[in-house]
Amino acid sequence: MNWIDQVDENSFKPTSITNTLRDSKPMQASVKHMYLALPIYAKLPDFLRKTNYKSPADVDDGPFQYAYNVKETAFDYWAKDPVATDIFNTFMSGVRAGRKNWVHWFPVQDRLISGSSGRDEDVLMVDVGGGRGHDLTTFIKTFPAAKGRYILEDLPVVVDDVHDRISRIEAVKHDFFKEQPIHDARVYFLHHVLHDWPDEDVVKILSQVTKVMKPGYSRVLLGENVLADVDCHIYPTLVDWGMMVLHCGMTRTVGRWKTLCELAGLKFIKYWPPPGDGDGIIEAVLAGDDL
Ligand SMILES: C[S@@+](CC[C@H](N)C(=O)[O-])C[C@H]1O[C@@H](n2cnc3c(N)ncnc32)[C@H](O)[C@@H]1O
Question: Which of 33, 72, 75, 102 to probe ligand 1 with, by most ligand atoms within 8 A of CB?
């Protein structure tokens, strides 16, 4: 397994694997997060037998609730426990490590900044369910001259857990099933968010955004691990299992994203694949926009 090196008969030393586990907070959080998921996988065969092998879609009564014997979503369950909240948020800051951040390969200047109002008082980007704001932070550092406001939205427990937010980011406590408070932003961004939910909830969440978008101006960007129609890479399929057991969610194909966008009142523009594996970007505008 290469977890320890034997130096001599009685002494051992850590390897690069154990050193990484010791020194990297996101790596430690990943292991702890996987540990939270293990009991669910253990009981999954039982759950699927009882539910006649249907794809789970009831977020209050899925594999997570069955394994933990609760009636709340994983997010609500973790929200009651500061340690679990910290583990999850740290894990989310680490999942993008080793991959190029989307702002470095998506044509941000061309698709987002160029057509924006260029006014300081207008909102350039809302990061819906943005966690600790790592995407907004990277965006701002990469495009410091872009004008406009940046809004980070998440559940109260997550917003309260953000300790090192840079000053240009305004944090708003918001439940994305409720009315979206920020109107007419240039970009509404949802990264690793919708794969946590079954189709019906995806449409509800997106519809709250659609209602406040400015015609001919606002865009929606979805950062998602997209499943290829054939010969799928192993990574999004593993994420697919993880999302199913934890949240009754899933990873989806481009075709399925197109359908969900349309159901929420959006026009699918394009899927931008990432370089290598990892999450790509789905770009959409309001249905009826001439783009
Ligand atoms: C998988 S994380 C993604 C976080 C961040 N966008 C990222 O890419 O790291 C999903 C986020 O959705 C948030 N969330 C879950 N339910 C929510 C709700 N009802 N309203 C707002 N945010 C919610 C969680 O707190 C979490 O931060």
Answer: 75
Pocket test for ligand 1, best of 33, 155, 182, 243 (most atoms within 8 A of CB): 155
Q: How do residues 251-261 score in pLDDT, each as one tens digit? A: 999 999 999 99
Q: Is the CB of 92 under 6 A from ligand 1?
A: yes
Look up the ipTM and state it: 0.99
pTM of the model: 0.90
Question: Residue 176: CB within 6 Å of ligand 1?
Answer: yes
Does residue 133's CB lie within 6 angstroms of at least one atom of ligand 1? no
Upper half-sphere CA count for residue 60 (Cβ side, 13 Å): 2
